[in-house]
Specification:
Blueprint (H helix, E strand, L loop, with lengths): L3 H12 L7 E6 L10 H8 L3 E8 L2 E7 L3 E7 L4 E7 L8 E7 L3 E7 L5 E5 L3 H4 L13 H8 L6 H6 L9 H10 L13 H20 L35 E5 L2 E5 L14
Antiparallel strand pairs: 1-6, 2-3, 3-4, 4-8, 5-7, 6-7, 9-10
Helix pairs in contact: 1-7, 4-7, 6-7
The protein binds a DNA duplex (16 and 16 nucleotides) through loops.
DNA sequence: CAAACTCCCTGTTAGC
DNA sequence: TGCTAACAGGGAGTTT
């Protein structure tokens, strides 16, 4: 499940391999993967364009393209997507959805088992990433900003951190990890978070992401391990002892998402419902 | 308007 | 053991 750290790793991987390369042809094997175009229109539009740069915004990977005009090809890996650069003559893999052939004998393979991943070809970045919130690893993201974001909202901590319009790039795993580090219960109403809690949460988010990036992503035991592996402290560790207090980690559902936390370290808000 | 729910997908796992 | 049903989940779209 790629989140910001895994996406960042992919961006760095691509930067070393596809910048200044030209797309000579493409093939779309699952039409819905390309959200903005029909397969034919897409293939016609990307043929002949050169990849000027690879950027990341939240969990989106952006290829800046230069052809007859400037365009962007954004890729969202969602649950199971991955991008690899391999020899153009390599066989098509089982779950390859889109292949972009480059002018150096290589090709970009967008492989996506669950078909949730998407590509968006557009004229300006705003069309795809315009509604995203602050980049959590940018200088703009501060404890003060986090505190400000929490004011006047009626959602709980977990829901806010999952909301890409608030902070861009966190997913279910790193949200659970960050809340545990900050000792904040997932159901805590964000309007009740104190300034000091926001300081702790800010530090938890940035340190968790930086740590995971340094390790090139997270190992989920699904065989899709990258270079290193970040070992979750609470995620998918229900019924295991908490690394901090020894309490038993609990799994519940918040926002329809599996949610892992330590009931001892992360005290429940007073009038909480089931957790 | 903001919050909550539905749906898209397939590999894996729980349960009978 | 073999089968089916439940589960996992990001975000677009829809409903409340």
């Amino acid at each position: 499940m790629p989140e910001l750290p895994e996406v960042e790793s992919t961006v760095r991987y691509l930067q070393e391999r596809v910048v200044d390369r030209t797309i000579v042809s493409s093939a779309v094997y699952w039409a819905r993967t390309v959200a903005t175009h029909t397969p034919i229109a897409f293939s016609g539009s990307v043929a002949g364009v050169t990849i000027e740069a690879v950027i990341r915004r939240g969990k989106f990977i952006g290829l800046k393209l230069r052809g007859s005009s400037e365009q962007y090809l954004f890729v969202h890996l969602r649950m199971s997507g991955s991008l690899d650069v391999i020899a153009a003559q390599s066989e098509i893999a089982t779950h390859d959805r889109v292949i972009l052939e480059l002018n150096n004998g290589k090709s970009i393979r967008f492989n996506d088992t669950r078909k949730f991943g998407r590509m968006y070809l557009c004229d300006s970045p705003e069309q795809v990433v315009g509604n995203l919130g602050v980049e959590p690893l940018s200088d703009d993201f501060s404890p003060e900003l986090l505190y400000a974001i929490t004011r006047g909202k009626k959602t709980c901590a977990k829901a806010l951190l999952l909301d890409q319009r608030a902070i861009a790039g966190l997913g279910n795993i790193y949200v659970d990890e960050s809340l545990w580090k900050a000792k904040i219960h997932p159901l805590t109403p964000v309007a009740k978070l104190t300034q000091s809690q926001c300081v702790a949460l800010h530090a938890a988010i940035t340190s968790t992401l930086e740590q995971a990036i340094a390790l090139s992503g997270t190992d989920f035991g699904d065989g899709v391990v990258q270079d290193g592996m970040y070992s979750p402290l609470v995620y998918a560790r229900d019924d295991e002892p908490c690394n901090r207090c020894g309490g038993s980690i609990r799994k519940s559902r918040v926002q329809q998402r599996g949610t892992h936390y330590c009931p001892q370290c992360q005290r429940a808000p007073r009038k909480s419902r089931r957790a």
